Amino acid sequence: MFPDLRWWHLLLALLLTPVLIVGWFWLAQPTFRFRLAMEIEVDGKVHTGSSIIQVSYLAGGPYERRWHTHVRGVAPIVDLGRHGTVVVLFNYRDTPYSKRLTAVGRPITPTGSGLPRLIGDLPIAVYSKLPEALTYSLPKNEIRVADFPALAWLPAGGDWKTAISILPEEMPTEIHDSARVIRMTIEPAYWSWVATEMSPAPEWLVTMRQDHKTPRAALSDQFSFHPLMIESGYRR
């Protein structure tokens, strides 16, 4: 009259096993959550932007990198008022960093030393620890300019297609002669909430999301600029 429960147990086990394996796989990865903040001064006024970012590390990265990074969160955005907006990017692609870094006096080596780092690499660079050794007892720390991740600048009144990649040393010439980075800091943030989309979003980001939903989304004239460089929760 009643089905043999042993078969149901077997079926349930078959269904749950992949889920448990995937769950174990993600939980076993070293994960670090932190607050990233940036302060920029322009016209004598300090403007600040910060956000909570979580990075998971998976061994076996490409080239000289020893791990892949999986980033969750919203990148810090610094509103400079009439001088536009500076965005700290999760990643960068097709940007002419090598020549420009050389122009501002930063060394370039065959292994990529001196290049702007990915946001996911910041805890490793700042604290000089491997992913599995990152703990939440680490102190708040200032990030040296050589380890800054990629930055983008959007002039005031422009849409996302007017954005350009920018180095901290270029701010006085590109943004305003009074513009300068005061500091970028990192601090562990174990209990903080990680948002994956900016809400409310600035108008340029709303337009950017809409434009990238089309089959042939136009790119910025200067470099490839995509919502996933800003919001980990963006889905086309």
Number of helices: 5
| Order of strands across the main sheet | 3-2-1-9-6
The succession of helices and strands, N to C, reads: HEEEEEHHEEEHEH
The overall pLDDT average reads: 82
Radius of gyration: 21 Å
Structural shape? globular
Largest sheet: 5 strands, antiparallel
Q: What distance separates the N and C termini?
A: 50 Å
Helical coverage, percent range? 10-25%
Low-confidence stretches: 19-26
The fraction of residues in strands falls at 15-25%
Number of strands: 9
Task: Give a structural overview.
The protein has five helices and nine strands; from the N terminus they run αβββββααβββαβα. The protein is α+β, with helices and mostly antiparallel strands and 236 residues long. The strands form two sheets. A five-stranded antiparallel β-sheet has the order 3-2-1-9-6. The protein is globular. It starts with a helix and ends in a 25-residue tail after the last helix.
